[in-house]
């Protein structure tokens, strides 16, 4: 099988390739094509992959190209992990928002809207080209904002695009381990939108073990989300929120922490990755690309959501919390289920159909899905409580305004998206945000 990785010069690509190296079954991926607009980044990542494959028999071949059409032809799977505007764009998103006293995180609030307005037109173009050049391919979308981008692409290639995120999987695995269960044997009752969901139950052998966790303050304080949100708030909610809900539940504290930070997350990652690519691109360098990548990745994981932990007063990440849900493992499991009809259950971003009655059938949600050769099928779930339904509906309405603005080129609609978001508290602020982002991102000139 042929796997195309869009954003193939990106920092996380070795995680995907490493997962492929461990797959020896019939029908596995044998050809990987990296696509990126930056040939230097492609070369650096290709060096890392070559070291990963050293000594591995029949490792998938790797080629790289800056020609999108060339990459897509003959693809069986397309993994999309692009970043429109790069990390400099993310840093600008944060600066503009914080200058107005609102959150600039890349998927939440004003920063997420700005990122979506830049990304949706590019994602739509990719979907159209996939439909033309590789109509039988499945697109696995990891491009943020993942739910929004998946919904934009689904309007052109339907259910053949599936969004993935490691955040709910990581949460479920942490909760299972705290309860003394094997994460691979647990069913995670989780539902919402991407970066806006709640774990409402964790079933082992048919029994929901979450009430045991919620009733034990000591257990609640022993893992990342428990420390981040606090035991009392989790008990009040009766569920475990996705870590990104800290931006909503403790918004004032999070914004203050970001304003006081020496450097925003986007600026930190930008500088970190500049150093990484410069080191690997230095003429005559003989240093290990794989070791440089691994060291950079470890630093990245250790500093994840540092400002939120600072706001919550919980200090550095514990060693047991450093393991993510492994989006590369989710991607591999998804590809195997579709290509080999190896039925499995995964938390994915898919069209709602009738899963949540508060949303229409085409709204992309994040929910447990049964996956087989025909794709991903959302499973029936209990309704969300009123407070969660209200938040999901409000944010989905904002996503729809972003999609409308991207399709129509309407600046007024883009301002409306900012103004309607729960974390933007003023129409006047929304207008200033649009003006600031227009100045920071020439690519938003399409919004007239």
Question: Mind explaining what this structure looks like?
Answer:
- The chain is of the alpha/beta class and 448 residues long.
- The protein is built from 20 helices and 13 strands.
- The strands form three sheets. A six-stranded parallel beta sheet has the order 3-2-1-4-5-6, sandwiched between helices. Strands 7, 8, 9 and 10 form a four-stranded antiparallel beta sheet that branches.
- Helix 1 packs parallel to helix 2, helix 4 packs antiparallel against helix 20 (427-440) and helix 19 packs across helix 20 (427-440).
- The protein is globular and about 55 Å long.
- The model has no long low-confidence stretch (mean pLDDT 93).
Topology:
Layout: E1 2-6, H1 13-21, E2 31-35, H2 39-53, E3 61-65, H3 68-72, E4 77-80, H4 86-99, H5 109-133, E5 138-141, H6 146-157, E6 161-163, H7 167-178, E7 186-193, E8 196-204, E9 207-208, H8 210-214, H9 217-220, H10 224-229, H11 231-237, E10 240-241, H12 246-249, H13 251-260, H14 265-281, H15 289-302, H16 306-312, H17 327-340, E11 344-351, E12 364-372, E13 375-378, H18 386-408, H19 411-420, H20 427-440
Parallel strand pairs: 1-2, 1-4, 2-3, 4-5, 5-6
Antiparallel strand pairs: 7-8, 8-9, 8-10, 11-12, 12-13
Termini, distance in Å? 43 Å
- Mind telling me the C-alpha Rg? 21 Å
Fraction of residues in β-strands = 15-25%
Query: Strand tally, please?
Result: 13
Overall mean pLDDT stands at: 93
The proportion of residues forming helix, as a percent range, comes to 40-55%
- H/I helix tally: 20
What are the segments in which pLDDT stays under 50 over at least 5 consecutive residues? none
What's the shape?
globular
The order of strands across the largest sheet is 3-2-1-4-5-6
Class computed from helices, strands and strand pairing: alpha/beta
Instruction: Tell me the major beta sheet.
Output: 6 strands, parallel
């Amino acid at each position: 099988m042929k796997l195309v990785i869009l954003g193939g010069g990106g920092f996380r690509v070795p995680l995907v390739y490493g997962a492929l190296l461990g797959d020896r079954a019939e029908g596995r991926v044998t050809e990987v094509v990296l696509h990126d607009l930056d040939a230097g980044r492609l070369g650096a990542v290709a060096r890392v992959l070559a070291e990963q494959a050293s000594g591995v028999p029949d490792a998938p071949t790797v080629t790289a190209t800056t020609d999108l059409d060339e990459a897509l032809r003959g693809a069986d799977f397309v993994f999309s992990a692009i970043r429109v505007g790069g990390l400099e764009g993310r840093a600008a998103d944060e600066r503009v928002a914080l200058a107005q006293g609102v959150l600039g995180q890349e998927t939440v609030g004003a920063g997420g809207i700005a990122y979506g307005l830049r990304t949706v037109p590019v994602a739509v173009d990719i979907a159209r080209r996939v439909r033309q050049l590789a109509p039988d391919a499945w697109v696995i979308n990891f491009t943020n904002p993942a739910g929004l981008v998946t919904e934009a692409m689904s309007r052109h290639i339907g259910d053949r695009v599936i969004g993935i995120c490691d955040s709910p999987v990581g949460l479920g695995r942490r909760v299972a381990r705290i309860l003394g269960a094997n994460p691979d044997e647990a069913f995670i009752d989780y539902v919402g939108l991407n970066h806006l969901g709640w774990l409402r139950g964790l079933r082992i052998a048919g029994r929901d073990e979450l009430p045991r966790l919620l009733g034990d303050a000591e257990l609640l304080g022993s893992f990342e989300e428990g420390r981040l949100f606090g035991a009392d708030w989790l008990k009040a909610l009766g569920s475990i929120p996705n870590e990104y809900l800290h931006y909503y539940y403790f918004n004032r504290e999070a914004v203050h922490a970001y304003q006081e930070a020496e450097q925003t997350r986007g600026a930190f990652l930008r500088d970190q990755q500049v150093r990484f690519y410069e080191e690997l691109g230095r003429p005559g360098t003989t240093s290990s690309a794989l070791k440089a990548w691994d060291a950079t990745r470890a630093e990245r994981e250790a500093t994840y959501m540092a400002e939120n932990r600072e706001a919550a007063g919980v200090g550095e990440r514990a060693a047991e919390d450093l393991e993510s849900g492994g989006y590369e493992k989710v991607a591999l499991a998804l590809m195997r289920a579709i290509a080999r009809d190896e039925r499995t259950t995964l938390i994915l971003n898919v069209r709602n159909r009738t899963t949540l009655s508060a949303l229409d059938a085409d709204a992309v949600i994040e929910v447990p899905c049964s996956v087989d050769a025909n794709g991903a099928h959302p499973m029936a779930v209990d309704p969300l409580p009123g407070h969660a339904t209200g938040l999901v509906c409000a944010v989905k309405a904002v996503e729809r305004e972003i999609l409308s603005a991207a399709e129509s080129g309407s600046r007024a609609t883009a301002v409306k998206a900012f103004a309607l978001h729960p974390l933007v508290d003023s129409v006047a602020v929304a207008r200033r945000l649009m003006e600031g982002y227009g100045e920071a991102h020439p690519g938003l000139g399409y919004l007239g």
